[in-house]
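the six lines:
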Amino acid sequence: MKAGGGGNMEGPRKVTQRTLQAEATKEKIIKATIELMKTIGLNNMTIKDIHHKAGISVGTFYHYYKTKEEVFFELYRIADDYFKQVVVPKLNRKELAVTEKILLFFKHYALFNEANGLEYVKQLYSTSNKMFTAKGRYMIAILQELVVAGQASGEFSSSIGAEEITNYLLIFGRGLVFDWCIREGSYSLTEKIVWDMGILLPVFRQ
Amino acid sequence: MKAGGGGNMEGPRKVTQRTLQAEATKEKIIKATIELMKTIGLNNMTIKDIHHKAGISVGTFYHYYKTKEEVFFELYRIADDYFKQVVVPKLNRKELAVTEKILLFFKHYALFNEANGLEYVKQLYSTSNKMFTAKGRYMIAILQELVVAGQASGEFSSSIGAEEITNYLLIFGRGLVFDWCIREGSYSLTEKIVWDMGILLPVFRQ
Amino acid sequence: MKAGGGGNMEGPRKVTQRTLQAEATKEKIIKATIELMKTIGLNNMTIKDIHHKAGISVGTFYHYYKTKEEVFFELYRIADDYFKQVVVPKLNRKELAVTEKILLFFKHYALFNEANGLEYVKQLYSTSNKMFTAKGRYMIAILQELVVAGQASGEFSSSIGAEEITNYLLIFGRGLVFDWCIREGSYSLTEKIVWDMGILLPVFRQ
Amino acid sequence: MKAGGGGNMEGPRKVTQRTLQAEATKEKIIKATIELMKTIGLNNMTIKDIHHKAGISVGTFYHYYKTKEEVFFELYRIADDYFKQVVVPKLNRKELAVTEKILLFFKHYALFNEANGLEYVKQLYSTSNKMFTAKGRYMIAILQELVVAGQASGEFSSSIGAEEITNYLLIFGRGLVFDWCIREGSYSLTEKIVWDMGILLPVFRQ
DNA sequence: CATGAATGAGACTTCATTCAT
DNA sequence: AATGAATGAAGTCTCATTCAT
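prediction for all of em together
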């Protein structure tokens, strides 16, 4: 008698007062965790910190998540979704050259990071963050599409594989964000990323 | 600045049985900490882990260090000294072009990191590691000297400032090490750094 | 005394869709608890374990039972009924000598225990299990009847009271089951009980 | 510089003020655990209960033992030692027949249990007590020696193996203790064990 | 009848740290 | 210089139980 729906097997669970409340509670946990990410970071926060800030009981925390890392993944997923749905569509302007699109891609990437805040980004840019390799695929795919398009249009050289170029750009991009972090966000990441990428990109031109 | 060896301001302390034993004990602590850095990392290791692995008592640990971070600093200093004394001299071969020297610089940088081991490097490449900005000056200086020499000899363009180029190279270098870390050291950092730097450097050529 | 079937004092409740569902739910709980008895035992199982395995919600569990012990009692009652109704009648074969009947009694007792499973029996054979003295009366009565018959027929000596002999046999029987438990059911209880009782019984022969 | 001793590798650690204190602390833990065994039992007691009653801190408890079960094993070992050193020697009186020695053996076994107290014994006689099979070997060995001696002297029949007889006697012995427990120690275990064993033993006579 | 969200007490365990020896 | 006994704060996690829907 659970979530009886139409003919679909899983489908969206019926929205009741209860499911709404459950969502609200998860929201509280997410919010609290983001807040703590920005101040003390994932490693230093405790589950007690989270449920205190969220204004719920420990038990409730454990009802929804097993570890704080699990919350972090969800958090990441949400941020990721935002990037996908809001940022990516902006790249589809026909009139732009591929180089410009790539610059735009990194510009938005930088803006996105700056919007998340220094502390959050510092947490993210950890060498032990599995997300880079696990979930980052999507971003890689987007960028790689641009590179491929560039090679197809003759804007980019084809002497280096698209995948390699993509990787190259991402490595440099992450290097820039990393630098921004260790310098405590003391400059405009967005400006620097656009400028520095502008210097790098000619390397791959025809 | 405790019980240092020769050359420090306090002058050489008289070497007695006691000071020898003390040095030996500190050595044990350092060794154990390095070992643990390579396996579980600074954040995850406990003081218990350290003194267990070192084969000494808790009390003895506290006799020499107040925190594990204190040990880490000493460790870092030792590694840094090694780089200065062993690696840097190798760059002074007259017959090399500046570009080659820079590649050699990064090659050794990579070798150095690989020698330290993945986990150790993962620990180091943290956005909260103050060492990058605090102690890294020396390495920056070395690299910048090379860049300046390159511009003086006409090998490099002077349209971009030496400092900016240096920074650019370091950012990319760190990006590469970071990538190596998040991919769990699944490839040869040394090979990749030489190859990728080889692609980047022409950007700054005359 | 809830929602009982026929024959109880409250009289048969009207069978509706609801009562049927209720019975089914209780059945699920019983089944799950038996399963858990056989694997982890009463002490180690949690109410969470039970309702998970039963595929119902916590609330539903509490609707029917207050504690897991309460379920256990029901379970015990069911098993006991089974022994009474299925096993005991088999002893009434005229052609058997009393000694043979007693061996049969213990054989079925052993079979019954083996059927219940090691973990279940381990739970039962607790020194704090009130069931032995409270509910065991019935089994004692059965056995004692056999002993009395044996004395009447001259098969058994009358120099020791029937009650004392009965007790003696039960103590040894329980000792055997206990041994089977502490040896983790590593042998056939049924075979051993028949064999060992066969050795003991001559003591009470004429 | 640990416990330097003579030429033996392990040897008794030098007795200092500190080792004495350590022993005293362990003693406190043991005492507290015994006390709790007698009242609420191993399963129900918590580590908090133990260290509270022992008047030490949690940390100290964990300094010496990892689990309460570990304490229990030590406890058991102590009791076992007592049996070995005090009880067993009493069996070596030449003038006794083997049957008498066995009765004496069980008499002391019963006395020993009665001395431990009903609650303690109740805890011990658990089907999940690994001690019966793990550590009980010693007692089995003692009893078996007696049986073997009885067979050698012709007092006992040799048609059944000594090991089997030993086991038989122990099973019955445990059955008696178990009965004493479920009847809440309402009779003299010592008297009953001597009496009932006296009835059983003739079975194995020549 | 059935659900599962929410609670918070409480058990377990680890650790950094102190200090008398 | 070295030891390790003792401490207790603090974090993790589980569970029984309640109750509105």
